[in-house]
Structure prediction request, 452 residues.
Amino acid sequence: MAALDADSPGAEECLEEDEEELEMSVEDPENESAGKPAPGGRSCILTRRGITLRVLLKDGLIEPGEGVLSIYYLGKKFLGDLLPDGKITWQETGQVFNSPSAWATYCKKLVNPAKKSGCGWASVRYKGQKLDQCKAAWLKKHQPNAPAAEESLVSEGEEEELAEEDEDEAREDNGPHGKRLESKNRTPVRYCTLGSRDSARNPHTLVEVTSFAAINKFQPFNVAISSNVLLLLDFHSHLTRSEVVGYLGGRWDTSSQVLTVLRAFPCRTRLGDAESAAAVEEEICQNLFMRGLALVGWYHSHPFSHALPSLQDIDAQMDYQLKLQGSNNRFQPCLALICAPYYHGNQGVESKISPFWVMPPPEQRPNDYGIPMEVEVTYVQDGFLTNDVLHEMMLLVEFYKGAPDLVKFQDIWSQEQTYLDKLKGSLASRTPKDQGFAHVLEQIYTLLKQGS
Prediction:
């Protein structure tokens, strides 16, 4: 069987498996055979990849320690202890991994189950420095005549992913005085520039929404949303640097063509945790049934980005619309909401919450993406906070307590405002005028400050 080329699909995964074997077999690249050509003429790659954590430890370039290793991925931070034998212990669970690649792949799959490789040496950092830079330092010291770096073995998509990990770390660091470091914005594109579907296009590309008036159409349904719904989903979105998701419960009146959103149901689960997700969804279905509500939509967050749908969001929304419509072909809308709590392009401290719906592409262009449409809604101010909402807020605080991606609410968000000030300011406009529950909200805020 022919060996995989470095540019072929699966090559990175194959190379990481090779690295696992080298971790076990290569004792010390400084021995006599380290510089000799390997069969097949791949001496440079084998020599470079033969440099393990154990070698770097032995040479004093790195030292064992608790929490000295870290991974930033899709808003989530993982911390690891470096052991004297070159192995890695993940602090959250105590699991031990033989190599950076094994640890990075495992952690990334928790967040993104479709992830096949971890770009281990480029993703894992030792005291803030990427491990592949430590490896390059070893090469410069022991093989000064060797090429400075081998040809990149990561794909264009992986390079973009690694760049996003750098942004995640910049947000985590928050600068020397707590000032948030500016990261590269995901620049939205106009729908008309997309054309037909392209597998090479980044699924996280943000797309500007289109108004119905712009295409000379009327919005096919009206929407009314309870302020308690917005308050709860806004609160949920503020708690973590990772994306959150939840469902919307309400009623659809076929005679008046009005969709009323009455309740938000946050999913207290982690991306990639399929077993937990199934149980949470079952619980939400039971809650909907008990309250006489129907499933009418969903929400999710873009913590530090625009409140605009990505290509992935557009496809997901189109799928949900078809599922809610069912097999009877009677029209029933499905609403999507995106909450952007910490995007600095928002006006003031209030989170931007954007409703959207997807119009199928024209019949003559079936391979185009669905069209994300801006939905006009009426917001209905509730007279008081319900016990359901307050109880759900307490459950969310408990769920994210101690999580590595929990927002540090005592840190500075902007100028003199902390992240807690930002949260309070955003919820203020959505909080009922009845102050009977104000003391309960203050208790929740106190718990958040203590927990982070």
About this structure: DSSP finds 13 helices and 16 strands in the chain. The longest strand covers residues 65-73. The two ends are 53 Å apart (CA to CA).
